[in-house]
Design brief:
rod-shaped; alpha+beta; about 500 residues; two-stranded antiparallel sheet
Length: about 500
């Protein structure tokens, strides 16, 4: 699935998840609306109809009394009209699920309708005794029964309405709970999908950024966590990154081979040049003028510098190819340290820098190292320390025993190295940004050679530095080093 389709599918899924609670809430609201409408059309309308029935019964009672006292036909017609109206309302009441109450009211109205003509006739004839008797025995009891039935019907509707309202209240609470729960669940699922979608995009991006940073820092062996067989854009990028690092590694190998070959080929002509310069200095080809001697001196310095650079390149290439050898022999440690102290004492005086070799602990009298190589390492580190330390600064060489070996530290109070550049200081030709504070510039090969020599002795070298405070190089070497090449050490380490 491509990145675009993944994003589209994720967004559509999130939209559907968020819409589902909304659809459920709308359907629940529609059901509540229908129930409220039914309550209005049935219960409330039934209550209104019963109210009109009771009003009609009161009107009928009032008109019947008027008939008994006025003895006129107008009162009789009014009573007939009210009876017809009550009968119609009783028939309508049956449609509100109150059939028994409607039947009782209709029966009372019919009883009054049957006795009404006799009562009319007696009242119009002036027979008050008969009219009063019909009113007391038929008319009034029927009215009271109908009124009582209307009261019971009204109470039944009220109870039913209360039950419906209670049920609706419960339904509303349940709908609210379900809606809120569904919304919370939908938000949670949407959040999980969003997080997974974001991670599926951000993690490969961060991995690619880390890979590009590593390649920019010179680490061509960096492996992406992104599978190269992915079918989306990240899989394509991972495959391109893999191919890029492969090509860069091949170019790096070609560069190393070129440097090695070039250094080896340059060594012979440089030696020839130095030889002829020595012959010129000895006067084999005649005496030189003062101006020629000055030019000769400059040529000698530059030729020796070039020869030293070629030797350094050959050393690095030899160690990288596995052909670097160390020749350990017995070394008097005190004598070795005394020579270092004496060698750099003059430089310390010239630079007005405090220099000290500090021995700590119970050091062994003798060690088995390639003294020339180790002297080269410590000389390089101390030279760098003096180079980057200002006047009135301090340079120290500390040495102490550790478990099975010797630990040495070269400390200075110089410019320091930025922390982001520390991982690269042992790379060939790499020079930190603090070069502007140095008295002289270097080639960027000294630390690379130092690392190769220390590791060839089976030791370790590390650096800790703070800008503006100083730098400390730490070296740990075994007391006794076996004689073997770097290729043999690599094979032993692999086994």
């Amino acid at each position: 699935m491509t990145l675009r389709s993944r994003l589209g599918a994720g967004l559509v899924t999130i939209a559907i998840i968020l819409v589902l609670p909304l659809v459920f809430a709308i359907r629940s609201l529609n059901r509540l609306h229908e129930d409220a409408k039914a309550l209005r059309d049935r219960e409330f309308s039934g209550l209104l109809l019963i109210g009109r029935v009771r009003e009609g019964l009161n009107n009928l009672r009032r008109e019947e009394l008027a008939l008994l006292f006025s003895y006129n036909s107008a009162a009789r017609d009014t009573v007939d009209h009210e009876l017809s109206h009550l009968g119609a309302m009783a028939d309508t009441l049956s449609r509100f699920q109150l059939p028994s109450y409607a039947q009782d009211i209709r029966s009372a109205v019919q009883q009054i309708q049957q006795a009404a003509p006799s009562e009319y006739a007696a009242a119009l004839a002036g027979d008050t005794a008969k009219a009063d008797a019909l009113s007391a025995k038929v008319f009034v009891p029927a009215l009271n029964r109908a009124d009582s039935t209307a009261t019971f019907a009204e109470s039944a509707i009220r109870d039913r309405t209360s039950s419906v309202v209670s049920a609706q209240t419960t339904a509303i609470g349940r709908t609210t709970t379900v809606s809120v729960t569904a919304l919370a669940l939908a938000l949670f699922i949407a959040a999980v999908i969003a997080i997974l979608l974001t991670r599926s995009i951000s993690e490969p991006v961060l991995d690619l950024r880390a890979g590009m940073t590593a390649v920019a820092d010179g680490d061509l062996d960096f492996k992406l966590r992104i599978p190269s067989d992915r079918t989306d854009e990240f899989g394509t990028l991972a495959e391109s990154f893999k191919e890029m690092t492969r090509q860069l590694s091949e170019l790096d190998k070609l560069k190393a081979e070129f440097v090695s070959v070039a250094s080896h080929e340059l060594k012979t002509p440089i030696n020839v040049m130095i030889g002829y310069l020595q012959l010129l200095e000895e006067g084999v080809y005649g005496s030189l003028t003062q101006k020629q001697l000055d030019v000769h001196k400059t040529l000698v310095v530059q030729a020796n510098t070039l020869l030293r650079l070629v030797k350094q390149l050959l050393d690095v290439s030899r160690f990288e190819a596995g052909g670097g050898r160390v020749e350990p022999r017995k070394v008097d440690l005190d004598h070795f340290l005394a020579e270092l102290d004496a060698a750099f004492h003059v430089l310390a005086v010239q630079r007005e820098i405090t220099f000290q070799v500090e021995r700590r602990g119970d050091l062994p009298d003798e060690v088995y190292w390639d003294v020339d190589r180790i002297n080269e390492v410590l000389g390089n580190l101390l030279s760098n320390a003096f180079k980057f330390t200002p006047r009135s600064g301090r340079v120290e060489l500390g040495i102490e025993p550790v478990d099975g070996g010797i630990h040495m530290e070269v400390r200075d109070t110089g410019a320091g190295i930025p922390p982001e550049q520390l991982p690269r200081i042992f790379e060939k030709f790499y020079q930190a940004d603090n070069q502007r504070s140095a008295h002289t510039t270097g080639t960027g090969l000294g630390l690379a050679i130092a690392k190769q020599i220390v590791e060839a002795h089976g030791g370790t070298i590390a650096c800790d530095s703070t800008v503006g405070v100083g730098t400390t190089f730490s070296i740990t070497l075994p007391v006794r080093v076996a004689r073997r090449s770097s290729m043999q050490r690599a094979i032993t380490a692999a086994v």
